[in-house]
Amino acid sequence: MNDMPAGPVYLDNAATTFPKPVSVLEKAMETYRRIGVSPGRGGYDLAAEAEEFVRETRRKAARFFGSSAPDRVIFTGNATDALNIAIQGMLHPGDHVVSTRLEHNSVLRPLYHLRQKRIIEYDLVPFDGKGFVDPADIIAAIRPDTKLVVVTHASNVLGTVQPIREIGRRCAEHGVPLLVDAAQSAGAVPIDVDGWQVAALAFTGHKSMLAPTGIGGIVLAGQTEDIEPSRFGGTGIDSASPVHTRDFPYRLEAGTLNLLGIIGLSGSLDYLGEAGIEAVHAREMELVTKLRDGLSLITGIDLYCAEDLSDHVALLTANVRGMDPHDVGAILDADFNIAVRTGVHCAPLVHESLDTSPGGSVRFSVGPFNTGSDIDLTLEAMKEIARHGGKG
Of the chain's two ends, which shows fewer C-beta atoms within 10 Å, N or C? Predict the structure, then answer.
């Protein structure tokens, strides 16, 4: 983990991990310079080589996410793109959806849009005081017309990792497919699509997977057939037909793929495979635990759902009493060269439940290249801010 250039103390890895491993970026550019043509769009050797590279990346991603169906790995622009494709493709007029108040706007807004169009209805299950959703509450919200359950795997505000295995088991017992938003968990904790009975999982490359921005995907279970395309166009196959192909993965892909992003994702999968995501996560959690312990000793700082970090990704949310979180973030940036995220983090219902609306909070998210000295500097900065600007 010495693959990092010098720079500010960067603690906004939940938004985008930065920096990316230099070796991943260099390998991606080298490969793209060699095979950067349209995959599967021509009969010449380079196009065939590019298409085979894409297929191999699907196989890598399927293994990484515990899926036995590499042809059901769909490449998208990011997790938001993936969730829109999955939600709109899996739902029909009159359907009911169960989701949670932990969700990011990438789930909430597509659901709200479909409800405003009078296409679906949905109910949102609350989370408890520790930041977790009870699987029993999700099952209790299922109705005869419920056709989808959508749950975030790891909260982008609280960092809590939800019990997806148990939720998947219970959803399967009730015959309701489960869609998982793995934007924060993919690359941070192991995922088992087949073993957890997940119908569809949305991921992005630019967070804990350490890939470039602009690449993400959907991993569908092998038996997931009832998903319709919401965009149509060229796929490189069935080109004479006016109907978009029904074959996977091309059913949900239209237009030329982001080959450079796929190459970067392939390299990041190799990188994580060598480093071991459990080892990376353990080190990140050591740092975030150190940060939690230090912040908890500072008078005037409130932490949210951080008492137990055993089922957690490496992020914390806090506030300095008496200060607007945006001001705290601005001071950290301008005076201490520390980058954090402030506001409601595109998850407004979480902050409503925490009573931190409308300002939100300060989010600290640790990445694989952070160090103990980064945490020490952050704690010293927060002590100064709380001492001079907060109310104890």
Answer: C
Say whether both 221 and 140 belong to one domain.
Answer: yes
The predicted structure's pLDDT at residue 244: 87
d(CA 352, CA 153): 20
* DSSP helix/strand/coil, 386: helix
| 214-236: pLDDT as tens digits | 999 999 998 888 899 998 988 88
Last residue of a domain, one of 275, 303, 330: 275
Give strand pairing partners of 220. 200
Structure-block tokens of residue 240: 């004479």
Residue 286, pLDDT > 70, answer: yes
Q: Three-state DSSP class for 129?
A: coil
Query: Omega into 21 within 30° of 0, i.e. cis?
Result: no
**Could you read off the pLDDT of 333-354 as tens digits, one per residue?**
999 999 999 999 999 999 999 9
Residue of 346, 359, 383, 389 marked catalytic: 346
Residue 346 known to be catalytic: yes
Share of the chain above pLDDT 70, in %: 97
Whether the pLDDT of residue 303 is over 90: the answer is yes
Contacts within 8 Å (CB) and 24+ apart, 382-386? 382/294, 382/295, 382/298, 382/301, 382/320, 382/332, 383/298, 385/320, 385/323, 385/328, 385/331, 385/332, 386/298, 386/299, 386/300, 386/301, 386/320
Tell me whether residue 255 is in a domain: yes
Q: How many domains, in total, are found in the chain? A: 2
- 167 and 315 together in one domain: no
* Listed residues 275, 303, 323: the one ending a domain: 275
How far is it, in rounded angstroms, from Cα 265 to Cα 269? 6
Do 180 and 87 share a domain, yes or no? Answer: yes
Phi, psi of 341, deg, nearest 5 = -110, 135
